[in-house]
TrEMBL record:
Keywords: Carbohydrate metabolism, Cellulose degradation, Copper, Disulfide bond, Metal-binding, Monooxygenase, Oxidoreductase, Polysaccharide degradation, Secreted, Signal
The species this protein was found in: Trametes cubensis
GO molecular function, one term: metal ion binding
Family: Belongs to the polysaccharide monooxygenase AA9 family.
UniProt name for this protein: lytic cellulose monooxygenase (C4-dehydrogenating)
Catalytic reaction list: [(1->4)-beta-D-glucosyl]n+m + reduced acceptor + O2 = 4-dehydro-beta-D-glucosyl-[(1->4)-beta-D-glucosyl]n-1 + [(1->4)-beta-D-glucosyl]m + acceptor + H2O
Origin: domain of life: Eukaryota
The UniProt record lists the keyword Disulfide bond: yes
Top class in the EC scheme: oxidoreductase
GO BP term (any one): cellulose catabolic process
Family annotation (Pfam families): AA9
E.C. code: 1.14.99.56
């Protein structure tokens, strides 16, 4: 068994100055080098987002959807352990790299049992993904307060009851239909010492979003009257 783990950040398309990649896996107390366990993405030089939630590239945004998985190593981690991503943001070709998230955003993490292996192009291509974590904004004093601002790392826990097997990881950013920005990075994992949990509900990626969800189709700087608070896109979190 293998799976993918995905993190999602949603922001206003009005802010486009800062783009990201998520090349570094955080696991076993170590932040690993670029693209060792994370599949090299198409934006590894440009840092540009993907905007089509229905594209097959929305799953992992690989540089080469067939070759890149096999060129990426698989990290071994324990169920119940903390893993994550470190962001890389280049301000311009002539300036230093700034790794903090400039955009405010919503994060969520997904996993998917898959076959034949974590480093195969076929991994995670069916209705097998489930959400294990999210970090939504809080609605306070008439505005959304996002946890993502001025951080450079995203970490979360693999459910202890997750069955042992192989896995991946990703990050995204968004706002209006066609203008929503998604940043993706899929890391390949082999989870050991797992349990007998049965993750649900299951979704497909692409397919998990239409682009019209309230948590995606939103201008965070111009909230509608009587705004009820942020609604996370996608399925409920599987607590494990």
């Amino acid at each position: 068994m293998k799976a993918f783990l995905a993190a999602l950040a949603l922001v206003s398309a009005q802010i486009a100055a800062a783009h990201y990649t998520l090349p570094d896996l955080i696991a076993n107390g170590t932040t690993f080098a670029d693209w060792v366990y994370v599949r090299t993405t198409q934006n590894h030089y440009s840092n540009a987002p993907i905007t089509d939630v229905n594209s097959t590239e929305f799953r992992c945004y690989e540089l080469d959807m067939n070759a890149t998985p096999g060129e990426t190593q698989i990290a071994t981690v324990e169920a119940g352990s903390t893993i994550g991503f470190k962001a890389v943001r280049s301000l311009s070709q002539s300036s230093p790299v700034d790794n903090t998230f400039y955009h405010p955003g919503y994060f969520s993490a997904y996993m998917s049992p898959a076959s034949p292996a974590a480093n195969s192009p076929e991994a995670g291509t069916g209705q097998s993904w489930f959400k294990i974590w999210e970090d939504p904004p809080v609605f306070e004093n008439g505005q959304l307060v996002f946890p993502s601002t001025s951080i450079s790392e995203i970490t979360f826990t693999i459910p202890k009851s997750l069955p042992s097997g192989q896995y991946l990881i990703a990050l995204h950013v968004a706002s209006s239909v066609g203008g929503a920005q998604f940043y993706i990075g899929c890391a390949q994992l082999n989870v050991i010492n797992g349990g007998d949990g049965k993750p649900e509900p299951l979704v497909s990626i692409p397919g998990v979003y239409t682009g019209y969800e309230p948590g995606i189709l939103i201008n965070i700087y111009d909230l509608p009257a009587n705004y009820p608070g942020y609604t996370s896109p996608g399925p409920a979190v599987w607590q494990g």
